[in-house]
Write a structure and sequence with these properties.
By secondary structure, the protein is α+β, with helices and mostly antiparallel strands. Helix content is about 40%, strand content about 20%.
């Protein structure tokens, strides 16, 4: 092999290695930006939950019920006034289903907020688990946030088909399937610590 040919191969390989390295750095930067934005949304939602709790001396129910007893909304509808969304909250008919004709106008007028909640394709929601601040059976909070620092307030999962007002809590088996598929899941605990959810020997671990 000629010296010129050898030099060409070395230069080409160097360029390829540099390109691969640059691509990996770019992917890492993108993933870190997504993580930080997810942490930020979780922190703001948890702050709104704290403000609700201060005023009402408890967290909202995980699923909001109409007077008839029917589940109509997720917990998020109750924290809207504590998220500078009081006008949107007052537009909502809590006695009707979240996606009913009666609430169509509110769904449309809140689109900017709903889009922010689900930014990057990540959806913040309760986890239906013993680790959650909400009871798995009743959907009521197991005490105050400050008294349950280790409990999980919310997780942020890569789901795009769920609306923020839709009653929903992700179950542990579904969370495990997401992690097994190499999806990233984030969380915030009741004292405001954010982290990543990982899977260790089939068990969910909340890495702070």
């Amino acid at each position: 092999m000629s010296l010129k040919r050898t030099a060409y191969i070395i230069i080409s390989a160097s360029i390829l290695i540099a390109a691969i390295y640059a691509a990996s750095i770019f992917r890492y930067a993108v993933n870190e930006a997504i993580r930080m934005r997810a942490y930020g949304r979780l922190s703001q939602l948890k702050l709104a939950m704290s403000n609700y709790e201060t005023v009402n001396q408890s967290l909202p129910l995980r699923e909001v019920r109409a007077e008839s007893g029917a589940i109509t909304f997720s917990w998020m509808v109750e924290i809207l006034p504590y998220f500078e969304q009081k006008d949107l909250y007052e537009e909502i008919d809590l006695e009707s289903d979240w996606n009913s004709d009666e609430n169509r106008s509110a769904i449309q007028s809140g689109e900017v907020f709903w889009t922010w909640v689900r930014d990057d394709g990540y959806f913040p929601c309760p986890i239906d688990s013993k680790n959650s601040i909400w009871d798995t059976e009743t959907g009521t909070a197991n005490g105050l946030l400050k008294d349950n620092c280790e409990a999980i307030a919310l997780v942020s999962v890569p789901l795009e088909h769920v609306h923020p007002l839709e009653p929903f809590a992700i179950r542990e088996p579904e969370l495990i399937r997401l992690l097994e598929a190499s999806k990233r899941v984030f969380f915030i605990d009741c004292c405001g610590n954010c982290g990543d959810v990982e899977l260790e020997v089939g068990v969910l671990v909340f890495k702070r």
